[in-house]
Amino acid sequence: MPPLPETEWTEQQRAGYDLYASEGHSGSVLRTLIRVPALADGIFPLMQYISRESTLPARHRTLLILRTAWLTQNANLWATQANYAAASGLSASDVLRVAEGPSEGWSTFEASLLGLADELFRNSSISDGTWQALAQQYALHNLMDAVVTVAQTTANAILFNSLGIQPDDGAAAPMPTDEVAYRIVVPYAEPSLTEPRVAPVEGRGLRVSRTFNRHPDMARRALNPGYVLSPERSRLTPHDRELLILRTGWNARSVYEWAKHVGSVGRARDHGLEPLWIAQGNDAPGWTDYERALIDAADEMYRDTMISDETWARLSQRLDTHQLMSVAASVARYRMISMTLNALGVQPLPDDERFPALAGYSLVR
């Protein structure tokens, strides 16, 4: 998805570019996402928050974003964030060691912080040990910001990878792929939490929004579902949207996300979807070739951090540029939501529908 030439910008696109460029965002990202201004409006406010405005020290923000950019192999995010490394108190050797991961040379706390990124990326969850280690120095808002920083950076990265967004021209900090081998070592994912780590605020409404609202400054940027959940904005049918969301929730083992989109929020069956088939994946009986391409897109973004050229070509036979971007954005958005729900321990209601029990099927890895 190449950047949109300036000669083709509408007034709305130019206004969006000017707004977000003033905040220091990557030009390559801006010129690509303004193809769909409503999508840009759904991404940049939270992106600005995690990179500049959260409760985390600048050094910790940079460590988390750089490590996640490395894990997802996103050259644009790596180059952009590396430009801020020195101002955040990181030396050039520190930046290189971020790619190496939580090895010797980091303080115990910063090693745990890098481990948080590794666990969230690999398992879509955080172990009790890592949570408790970070809680020794972090207050509640810090913990929530650390989780959302990794989750949203993962979402941005897999979206940018799928769209083929490149580093800005003249980027001075390429990923050190020739110096550092890709390696990630994390413990097996622990069972899903049965009690919340972050209790929701009292009141009415979904537990996800009441949990996020424990941190209002973060929540007002993160709780922005208007693009993905709006057929008018995304131009995806509810059937396609819910198929992508549920397959992503399944891959990330997000019990809450699955329950709500099978049930009261997504109403999957009302849109002609069989949740059992979604859990089984693209080899379940009855899918059309197009539906299998949607499942493959969700699986590839989870497993490979991008939609493959082959799957993109299959989707392109039916979808236009706007809709293709919405497919990638929908998976990215609900990867972020699923990771955050798992880490914070947001619980489904007692009568919510849980995952189906499958024999002979394994998770996408």
Summarize the structure.
With 365 residues, this protein is an all-alpha fold. The protein contains 18 helices and no strands. The model has no long low-confidence stretch (mean pLDDT 92).
Please describe what this structure looks like.
It is a single chain. By secondary structure, the protein is an all-alpha fold. The protein folds into two domains: 6-190, Up-down Bundle (AhpD-like), CATH 1.20.1290; 231-344, AhpD-like (Up-down Bundle). The chain is 57% helix and 0% strand. The protein has 18 helices and no strands. It has helices at 11-21, 27-33, 37-53, 58-72, 75-82, 92-100, 108-123, 128-135, 140-163, 207-212, 216-222, 231-234, 238-251, 255-262, 275-280, 289-303, 309-316, 321-344. Helix 9 runs antiparallel to helix 18 (321-344) and helix 13 runs parallel beside helix 16 (289-303). The mean pLDDT is 92.
Q: What is the strand content?
A: under 5%
Radius of gyration: 20 Å
Number of beta strands: 0
Write the CATH homologous superfamily of the largest domain. AhpD-like
CATH topology assignment of the largest domain:
AhpD-like
Work out the oligomeric state of the chains in this entry.
single chain
Order of helices and strands: HHHHHHHHHHHHHHHHHH
pLDDT < 50 runs, ≥5 residues: none
Largest sheet: number of strands, sense, barrel closure: none
Q: What structural class is derived from the secondary structure elements?
A: mainly alpha
Q: Number of domains in the coordinates?
A: 2
Average per-residue pLDDT, rounded, comes to 92
- How many distinct helices? 18
Describe the global form.
globular
Top-tier CATH class of the largest domain: Mainly Alpha
Helix content: 55-70%
Q: What distance separates the N and C termini?
A: 26 Å
CATH architecture of the largest domain: Up-down Bundle
